[in-house]
Amino acid sequence: MTAPTHFAPLLRVIHWLMAILLLAMLFIGISMVGDLSPRHDALVALHKPLGIALLALALVRLAVRLARPLPPLPADMPSWQQRLAKLSHLLLYALMIALPLVGWAMQSAGGYPVALHERLLLPPIVPHDAQLYAALRLAHTVLAYLLFIGILAHLAAALYHALIRRDGVLSSMTTGTGIRRLPDGQ
Asked: What keywords does the record list, in alphabetical order (predicted)?
C-alpha cells in the first residue's frame, strides 16, 4: 500500500473547523480577561460550550489521525525538521486537549457550572476549592498563551512550506492535492 499524498478529507474538515474555533476562542478569552468587556457574561456563556466542543473535536481528530495513514513529509526535508514537526504536532494535540479540560476543572473548582445549553450542565470534575480554582485559572491562562504560540509557529511552518519550500505540505491539508515527491536521487 502506498502512502497517501494528502490528509483524509474528514481530517482536513476537522482541522479547518478547529482552526476557526480555536482562533475565536483565543479572542473570546482575551476579551474576557479582567472582566473588562461589558459583554463578559455573554462571552463566558459562549466560551464554555465552545471549549467543550473543541475538546470533543480534538478527541475525534486524534482518533481519525491515528486510524488513517498520514502523508509523509517531503523526503528532502532535513530529519531535524521532521522530528520538530512531529513534536510540534504532539504538543498542539496535548494543548488542544489539556486546555479545555483545565478550563472545565477550573470552573468546577470555582463552583461554576459548565453549561452546554440552558438545561444541559456538565458535572464537576474536581471538588469546589478556591485555592485549586486559582491554580487552575493560572494554568488555563498559561496553556492558552502556549497554544497561541503553538498556533503561530504552526502557521509560520505552513507558510514556510507554501512560500519557500513549495513542497505541497500546505496543499495536502487545504486542497488535498498532496505533497510533491522528488524522484530518486534528488
From this structure: Cell membrane, Electron transport, Heme, Iron, Membrane, Metal-binding, Transmembrane, Transmembrane helix, Transport
Helix (H) or strand (E) holding 130: helix 130-159
Residue 89 lies in a domain: yes
Give the model confidence (pLDDT) of 34-73 as tens digits.
666 678 888 988 999 999 999 999 999 999 999 998 899 9
Question: How much is the pLDDT for 101?
Answer: 98
Q: Which residue stretches of 4-129 are H helix? A: 9-32, 40-67, 79-109
Q: How far apart are CA 129 and CA 65, in angstroms?
A: 37
- Going by pLDDT thresholds of 50, 70 and 90, the confidence category of residue 147 is very high
Question: Which residue in 16, 92, 98, 100 sits closest to 51, CA to CA?
Answer: 100
CATH number of the domain to which 143 belongs? 1.20.950
Tell me, yes or no, whether 47 lies in a domain. Answer: yes
Spatial separation of the C-alpha atoms in residues 141 and 147, rounded to whole Å: 10
Indicate the helix (H) or strand (E) that contains 146: helix 130-159
Q: Is residue 19 part of a domain?
A: yes
Domain span at residue 160?
A: 9-165
This prediction has a pTM of 0.90
